[in-house]
Specification:
With about 290 residues, the protein is an alpha+beta fold. It is about 50% helix and about 15% strand. The longest helix has 26 residues. The protein is elongated and about 75 Å long. The structure holds FE2/S2 (inorganic) cluster.
Length: about 290
């Protein structure tokens, strides 16, 4: 049996704002009856652009009804910018908490609100569209949605992801993919930490320093240069002097010196050591080369 708060029970037994607004300014429809939960949210704006009325229709459990009801109360009086900042956690908190297994109801509320705002901003043309690639075919959940609930709620297990968006809670065939997404997101965080940690270490060995310089080039500098058709190679490290060569568009670029100071040296100072300075190896800049990294 789930533990429900008094506020949740109140909104379940006495739901507010049930129904559909006639000639609404925004309409958001998410979920589907086939998946067991569906929510339609409609709102009307006043002359100042604030939400003056909101109603909902839902098909779902007690938590779906209570979260939808409370959402309509939360957003009344808000501007669209303010409403767009409402998170699924805000909805759950407003109810005094939700059972973990029911957090997906709060996510459905946030999605319906976003869809309704988007529908208004597109002049009524846009309906809720799934972004990304479907990972869970049982519940029609995409990789983008899974990534978002993981990041916003700091989820670390497949079970938690299922609680928040249902993905993985049917046949279980997508659980391996969900696990990979969790690993990717938390792996990124681990890498970010591993880059920043040595910055606080007073003494790096030469090997550590060179590895960290290469890592910073790969992760912080090269992606920015590649976006403009360029590239960079690490040529040498002697003491605090780092020699690099620009490749591709960057090799002919007249603002290379600026790029050197502004991007390359700044990033290396930030992520490796404030003592580093960078020089360009002009001799190798125009030689044939392989794009690495
Ligand atoms: S495909 Fe995700 S649970 Fe079946």
């Amino acid at each position: 049996m789930w533990e429900y708060t008094d506020k949740l029970k109140d909104h379940f037994f006495n739901p507010r704002n049930v129904g559909e607004i006639e000639e609404p300014d925004g309409v958001g429809e998410v979920g589907s009856l086939a998946c067991g939960d569906a929510l339609k949210l409609t709102f009307k704006l006043d002359e100042k652009g604030k939400i003056k009325d909101a109603k909902f229709k839902t098909f779902g459990c007690a938590s779906a009804i209570a979260t939808s009801s409370v959402l309509t109360e939360m957003i009344k009086g808000l501007s669209l910018e303010e409403a767009a900042r409402v998170t699924n956690k805000d909805i759950a908190d407003y109810l005094g908490g939700l059972p973990e297994q029911k957090m997906h109801c709060s996510v459905m509320g946030r999605e319906a609100l976003e869809a309704a705002i988007e529908n208004y901003r597109s002049g009524g043309r846009k309906k809720h569209e799934l972004e990304g690639n479907i990972i869970c075919t049982c519940f029609g959940v995409t990789d983008k949605e899974i990534e978002r609930v993981i990041r916003e709620n700091n989820l670390t297990t497949v079970e938690e992801v299922t609680n928040y968006c249902k993905a993985g809670g049917g046949c279980g065939g997508c659980q391996g993919e969900i696990e990979k997404i969790i690993e990717k997101i938390h792996g990124d965080k681990v890498e970010e930490v591993s880059v920043s940690v040595p910055r606080r270490v007073s003494k790096l060995t030469n090997i550590q320093k060179i590895q960290l310089i290469q890592q910073t080039i790969n992760e912080q500098i090269r992606p920015a240069l590649r976006a403009h058709g360029g590239n960079i190679e690490l040529i040498d490290v002697e003491g605090d002097k780092v020699t690099v060569a620009f490749r591709g568009m960057c090799a002919q670029c007249r603002v290379a010196e600026f790029t050197m100071k502004d991007l390359v040296e700044a990033k290396l100072k930030e992520f490796v050591s404030g003592e580093l300075f960078v020089e360009e190896d002009k001799d190798s800049a125009n030689q044939p080369h392989n794009h690495r990294g």
